Amino acid sequence: MHKSGLPSVNLLKPAVKPPLWLLAELTYRCPLQCPYCSNPLDFAKQEKELTTAQWIKVFEEAREMGAVQIGFSGGEPLVRKDLPELIRAARDLGFYTNLITSGIGLTEKKIDAFAQAGLDHIQISFQASDEELNAALAGNAKAFQQKLAMAKAVKAHGYPMVLNFVLHRHNIDQIDKIIDLSIELDADDVELATCQFYGWAQLNREGLLPTREQIARAENVVHQYREKMAGNGNLANLLFVTPDYYEERPKGCMGGWGAIFLSVTPEGMALPCHSARQLPVEFPSVLENTLQEIWYDSFGFNKYRGFDWMPEPCRSCSEKEKDFGGCRCQAFMLTGNADNADPVCSKSEHHGMILAAREQANCTNIQINQLQFRNRANSQLIFKG
Ligand code: FES
Fold first, then answer.
1. Which residues form the Radical SAM core domain (predicted)?
2. How far is the CA of 254 from the centre of ligand 1 (A)?
3. Can you tell me the ipTM of this complex?
């Protein structure tokens, strides 16, 4: 507090803007076992979940601060029986609501209930464009047909639908079939997102990272489809996300630490990004603090805000305001120190690790059945280890 009695304001520090986007990770439970799941490796250790009332309090506080969009994700958010109630509460508060689901556990009845609750948008993820590969990757033989049926039902209910395909070395060569399937299902938007290496995907990186040639081929196919479809109104948007492992500059992760994005884990830990709980940083709980306190005052949310925390080469880099030194989680996973520049950056002294991973992608022969699948037993093992 200033001597005048007014709160002291540090004019040198840029003002922190409120969060725009709240990700409610309702649960880590999931019927699928994807080997690239971004949930923590030791998810089985964490069984507690916020109650309906506790979630609604989080929504109220986020909305009061100015957040406009909410994503319900997990795990598989459909396993929460109170999902319609949570959607309704968020919608009544004025959020734009988005359900991010595998489609497993979805029924026509639930789609009806979500529509009545005011859900704005549904994103369904697929593992592949055919039943066999989808089953091998998801660890669930019935998943593909269920997803197809639910994608059709979502469209029939008049929802704008996003289909999300996580691409990796075992399915990226089928990208043309994946786009054909998306057109057939009348998707409004298609995200062809090459695996980002967090959680289980990082554990399986050698068996998932595509080669540069695979990515170049896929990019070419996407380009051809875009040209073919331009103007015919078939598909609103075809987004292809390449892995940062083939970039020379890192991504501006989360649009900056504590800048626009706030994630809350199933048991109520508030994070500036969904992967941050692995960092050796103390993060606050929504059970002990208001979101206002968490966002503006907590140690964890302020740790990597601004530029003062940066060591070289980021500190004097002319691109730091664009990429913020890259991803803190990736810097930690690869170098053991989250303060370091993201090794994706060619200016990083650790960039050789990225070059080695690219090299490894050219000669590895890991098959799908050799990947580590996300499941409870694996998670327990990793936790014990
Ligand atoms: Fe956590 Fe990038 S995923 S900062």
1. 16-232
2. 7
3. 0.90
